[in-house]
Write a structure and sequence with these properties.
Elements (H helix, E strand, L loop, with lengths): L1 H8 L1 H5 L11 H10 L6 H38 L5 H23 L10 H26 L2 H20 L4 H13 L5 H18 L5 H9 L7 H23 L3 H25 L3
Helix pairs in contact: 1-3, 1-4, 1-5, 3-4, 4-5, 4-12, 5-10, 6-9, 7-8, 8-11, 9-10
């Protein structure tokens, strides 16, 4: 119930791009904390949510984590043997989207739990979603006031993420990152898409009776609401990302490649531990 209600009620977070880096073992607790920011549940509802999240957590660990491990192991092998090709970037990314689609489908199977919310709870949920969206709009507007500083910040953040995997980076790689940030397309599509999703979700949630078909469609196929311009923008952005990820891969030194493999091994070991932890639950 924990996971189930979490994904259903905090669908805004889960399906519109908000992420949080917490330990996987405590993911269920984190979700419950996030849920409290959106709607106040009574004791019976809270118990259902807690049970559901636990069930989903175990399901994900037992059924999905082994898939993630297999994909990472294959990628690690290709990097180690220097057999990675450009098309592998697209293949891996599509595989990750497939993994996410499985989670979305699992959530949609239990979306009827939303029907347990009272009208006042539904309204409170919609208000909270709108408030979160407005906060993000304000942040985006503040960032847009200094495009140059924002670009510098993007370069810095991207370099730090690369360093986490490869250690220090070369001047050539710094140049690649700067080119990536400059060429990366910009547009105000994401928040407009989120706003449209929120509106559609609110209409379905507040309808009498609740429009479960619409809610299920929003969970399983949220990107159906993207405009053609948004889809075109995403396609260009993906192409740019793949282009520069490949350039970075080709620029790896032997030392960086070894660091990258060691980092992959750390994650494989972590996945092994998590899979073992949840095996008998």
């Amino acid at each position: 119930m924990k996971r189930l209600l979490i994904t259903c009620i905090t669908i805004t977070l889960l399906l519109t791009g908000c992420t949080a880096q917490l330990g996987y073992r405590f993911a269920d607790t984190f979700i419950e904390w996030q849920l409290d920011d959106y709607v106040e549940l009574n004791d019976d509802q809270q118990q259902q949510v807690s049970t559901l999240i636990d069930e989903l957590h175990v399901w994900h660990a037992q059924n999905e984590l082994p898939k993630y491990r297999e994909e990472l192991a294959q990628l690690r092998t290709k990097i180690a043997e220097n057999t990675l090709v450009y098309d592998d970037i697209d293949r891996v990314e599509n595989k990750l989207w497939d993994f996410w689609a499985t989670v979305q489908q699992r959530v949609a199977e239990h979306a009827d739990l939303l029907q347990q919310l009272s009208v006042s709870q539904r309204e409170a949920l919609i208000d909270a979603m709108q408030s979160k969206l407005e906060e993000q709009r304000e942040e985006e507007q503040e960032e847009a006031q200094s495009e140059l500083l924002e670009q510098i910040d993007r370069v810095s953040r991207r370099e730090e993420r690369i360093k986490d995997w490869t250690g220090s980076i070369t001047q050539q790689q710094q140049t690649i990152v700067r080119q990536w940030v400059r060429e990366r397309p910009t547009g105000g599509y994401w928040l407009n898409y989120r706003a449209r999703w929120n509106d559609e979700f609110a209409d379905a949630l507040l309808s009498e009776p609740m429009d479960m078909d619409a809610i299920n469609a929003l969970i399983v196929e949220p990107r159906q609401l993207r405009s053609q311009a948004h889809k075109d923008y995403t396609e260009v952005r993906t192409a740019v990302r793949h282009k520069y990820l490949w350039k970075l891969h080709q620029s790896l030194t032997d030392q960086q490649r070894q660091r990258l493999l060691e980092k992959a091994d750390e994650y494989l070991a972590l996945l092994d531990d998590l899979i073992a932890d949840f095996a008998d639950k």
